[in-house]
Amino acid sequence: MKGTPPGFVSLEGRSPTIDLIGPVYARGKGRELVLGLRCERKHCNTRGTVHGGILATLADIALGYALSSSTEPPTAAVTANLTLDYVGAANEGDWLETRVDFQKLGKRLAFANCYVERGKDVIVRASAVFVVTNK
User: Fold this and answer.
1) Which terminal residue of the chain, N or C, has fewer Cβ atoms less than 10 Å from its own Cβ?
2) What is the tally of structural domains in the chain?
3) Separation in Å, CA 30 to CA 27, 51, 75, 86, 90
């Protein structure tokens, strides 16, 4: 299996969920945060492709971590809505990266998109609404 691309380090502030699907890697912070995941057999369904639930979890984690680390002090928020469009697939051994795009960071709500990419191909487009709990 291939290694981790340069610049990625183990994601800090891990949770039991991240430990379950990980290892998850990070590069950058805030709006520039990119998460990476090397797909393993444990991520795959019976057809041999990465399960949609893993992709949804990765997108949700990327959105939450990017939101939290985009402000000082960190923004605390919970996911109120997460909608995904699966436009491709990933297989064991593939390296996935996330990109997050914020539309609005308000005092009560935050809106953002996340794109999960395999190489140059977007395989998931996620749209999320977060309820901000600390502002």
Assistant:
1) N
2) 1
3) 10, 27, 10, 25, 26
